[in-house]
């Protein structure tokens, strides 16, 4: 399994922070050649520098994944330079937790552009290349909010459900032509996503939950599952999986759980302006 | 106690994409159950013609011209309806388009059309209706998704993407607004005999009138999700087992490829492109 990534060309969008950064680090450890992609060149350079100790297998790419032409160019340039593209992690994304009635249509547009269109652009550019190669693996980041519907996260869940649907559909469609697709569904991972609004505003007063799973452990688990070509990768592999399955078949206990979650979140929001 | 049949009596219901397919059947069944129906569609001539066919059901049918991809039009249609009728009890965000072809044949323009209609259409509807329903302290919003989105159906990736979004969105809102007495239901039809198949109606498809009855019965019970036909519910449960799921798709694969290769289907695709 460790060898699955050795010498492989991997591109990671949103690679300079959070899960993306941890994936870059773990990919390097496992011998891959990594193209860390991000919007802000200074931040990407800084993040890549921190990983330079892992060897000279790290490269940087500046790309705003919400812009189709930039994504197309970034992927094509990477393939020209590296000779191929084995793994694409469409990982850039934004969180979003608020009551539906407070969300503006502008926020809807931002979250659909950032969480859905970015994945479409990545897939659209990479699939023809991977078909030509006869192989490749695309890993799209969704969330456990793409598997069951957490109340007060309707914007986020709409986009994350869509990523699960897209990736699963393509997984079956290309299964016999050498292409692999996985959906990454992180639950509670210790990353800055907890402190950001849909529009990117950072709130330092918002905390990463104390019980959040360490991001380096998450990256290691994710790559183990990617190596197995697993379709839906839930990290950590804990109660979230049970909630997902229970929701899918309408288990009464899970219905109760989600209703309680709605009530608790409404109360927390009324009191402190956030949900945890 | 309210019985299922009078859950709709005297209620104001708006149905987008109401002039054909499941939408039309919903309008008809709503009329039968005593509702006041606002049939909404993009093409005024087609809507008028469809509404005329239902005029025998009484004078409880009205028509609305609206393109659900346009936020301002949806806003106006819903506000005008609420103003005219005094309230809005049921909104069926039903308008949608389908897709079935190999992914490589899809363009970014196809993606945009699919997302604008199937996802933004629903967002626009919820966004406009929710303030009305919160004001009147009650209401029911019904969004149409598809069983295709319940288990990653291949060769329908654009459609599945948008319909999955509708499931996630609607179910979040179900839990979120239940305490405010605003009910959300997501409808996941399996194969229904509608024009979406363009004459290639699959075996085992449910007649559209039956579909409308099943949907309204589910809504009357305030179900979070309505999935049909029953065989689909069974498949859905089994699909939680990844082994079954992979096998089911593998069996379909050969059949689907043969279908795509047929001259018939190629002609259908060419027609669709010209639309």
Q: How is this fold's topology laid out?
A:
The complex is a heterodimer of chains A (276) and B (275).
Chain A: E1 9-13, H1 18-29, E2 33-38, H2 41-50, E3 58-62, H3 68-82, E4 87-90, H4 105-133, E5 136-141, H5 154-174, E6 179-186, H6 215-227, E7 232-235, H7 239-248, H8 252-272
Helix pairs in contact in A: 1-6, 3-4, 4-5
Chain B: E1 12-16, H1 21-32, E2 36-41, H2 44-53, E3 61-65, H3 71-85, E4 90-93, H4 108-135, E5 139-144, H5 157-177, E6 182-189, H6 208-220, E7 225-228, H7 230-238, H8 242-261, H9 263-274
Parallel strand pairs in B: 1-2, 1-4, 2-3, 4-5, 5-6, 6-7
Helix pairs in contact in B: 1-6, 3-4, 4-5
A few lines on this structure:
By secondary structure, chain A is an alpha/beta fold. Chain A has helices spanning 18-29, 41-50, 68-82, 105-133, 154-174, 215-227, 239-248, 252-272, and strands spanning 9-13, 33-38, 58-62, 87-90, 136-141, 179-186, 232-235.
Q: What CATH architecture of the largest domain in chain B would you give? A: 3-Layer(aba) Sandwich
What is the 3D form of chain A?
A: globular
Average of pLDDT of chain B? 88
Number of strands of chain A: 7
Task: Describe it.
The complex is a heterodimer of chains A (276) and B (275). Chain A is built from 8 helices and 7 strands. By secondary structure, chain A is of the alpha/beta class. Chain A has a 7-stranded parallel beta sheet with strand order 3-2-1-4-5-6-7, with helices on both faces. In chain A, strand 1 (9-13), helix 1 (18-29) and strand 2 (33-38) form a beta-alpha-beta unit. Chain A is globular. The relative contact order of chain A is 0.13. The mean pLDDT of chain A is 90. Chain B is α/β, with parallel strands linked by helices and 275 residues long. Chain B has 2 domains: 6-238, Rossmann fold; 240-275. Chain B has helices at 21-32, 44-53, 71-85, 108-135, 157-177, 208-220, 230-238, 242-261, 263-274, and strands at 12-16, 36-41, 61-65, 90-93, 139-144, 182-189, 225-228. Chain B has a 7-stranded parallel beta sheet with strand order 3-2-1-4-5-6-7, with helices on both faces. In chain B, strand 5 (139-144), helix 5 (157-177) and strand 6 form a beta-alpha-beta unit. The longest helix of chain B has 28 residues, at 108-135. Chain B is globular, with a radius of gyration of 19 Å. The termini of chain B are far apart.
């Amino acid at each position: 399994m460790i060898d699955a990534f050795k010498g492989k060309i991997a591109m990671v969008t949103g690679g300079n922070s959070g899960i993306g950064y941890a994936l870059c680090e773990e990919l390097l450890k496992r011998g891959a050649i990594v193209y860390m992609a991000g919007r802000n060149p200074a931040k990407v350079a800084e993040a890549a520098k921190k990983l330079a100790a892992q060897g000279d297998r790290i490269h940087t790419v500046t790309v705003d994944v919400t812009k189709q032409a930039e994504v197309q160019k970034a992927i094509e340039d990477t393939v020209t330079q590296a000779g191929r593209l084995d793994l694409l992690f469409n990982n850039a994304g934004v969180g979003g937790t608020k009551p539906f009635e407070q969300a503006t249509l502008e926020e809807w547009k931002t979250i659909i552009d950032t969480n859905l269109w970015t994945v479409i652009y990545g897939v659209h550019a990479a699939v023809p290349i991977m078909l030509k190669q006869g192989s490749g693996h695309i890993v799209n980041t969704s969330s456990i909010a793409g598997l069951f519907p957490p109340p007060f996260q309707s914007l986020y869940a709409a986009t994350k459900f869509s990523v699960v649907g897209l990736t699963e559909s393509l997984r079956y469609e290309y299964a016999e032509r050498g292409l692999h697709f996985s959906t990454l569904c992180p639950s509670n991972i210790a990353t800055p996503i907890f402190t950001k609004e849909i529009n990117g505003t950072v709130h330092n007063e918002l905390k990463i939950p104390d019980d959040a799973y360490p991001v380096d452990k998450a990256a290691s688990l994710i790559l183990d599952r990617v190596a197995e070509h697993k379709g839906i990768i839930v990290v950590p592999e804990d109660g979230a999986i049970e909630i997902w399955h229970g929701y899918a078949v309408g288990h009464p206990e899970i219905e109760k759980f989600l209703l309680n979650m709605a009530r608790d979140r409404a109360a927390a929001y009324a009191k402190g302006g956030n949900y945890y | 106690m309210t019985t299922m049949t009078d859950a709709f009596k005297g209620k104001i219901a708006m149905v987008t994409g109401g002039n054909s397919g499941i939408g039309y059947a919903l309008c008809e069944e709503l009329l039968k159950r005593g509702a006041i129906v606002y049939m909404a569609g993009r093409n005024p001539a087609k809507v008028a013609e469809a509404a005329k066919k239902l005029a025998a059901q009484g004078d409880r049918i009205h028509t609305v011209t609206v393109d659900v991809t346009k936020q301002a039009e949806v806003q106006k249609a819903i506000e005008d309806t609420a103003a005219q009728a005094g309230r809005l009890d049921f909104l069926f965000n039903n308008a949608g388009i389908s897709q079935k072809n190999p992914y490589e044949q899809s363009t970014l323009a196809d993606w945009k059309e699919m997302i604008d209609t199937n996802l933004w259409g629903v967002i626009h509807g919820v966004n406009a209706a929710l303030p009305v329903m919160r004001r009147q302290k009650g209401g029911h919003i019904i969004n149409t998704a598809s069983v295709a989105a319940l288990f990653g159906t291949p060769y329908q990736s654009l459609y599945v993407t948008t319909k999955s979004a509708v499931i996630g969105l609607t179910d979040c809102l179900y839990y979120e607004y239940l305490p405010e007495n605003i009910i959300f239901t997501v409808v996941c039809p399996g194969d229904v005999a509608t024009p979406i198949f363009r004459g290639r109606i699959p075996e085992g498809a449910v007649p559209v009138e039956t579909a409308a009855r099943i949907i309204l019965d589910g809504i009357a019970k305030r179900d979070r999700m309505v999935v049909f036909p029953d065989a689909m519910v069974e498949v859905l449960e089994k699909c939680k087992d990844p082994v079954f799921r992979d096998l089911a798709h593998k069996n379909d694969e050969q059949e689907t490829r043969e279908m795509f290769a047929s001259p018939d289907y190629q002609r259908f695709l060419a027609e669709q492109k010209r639309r």
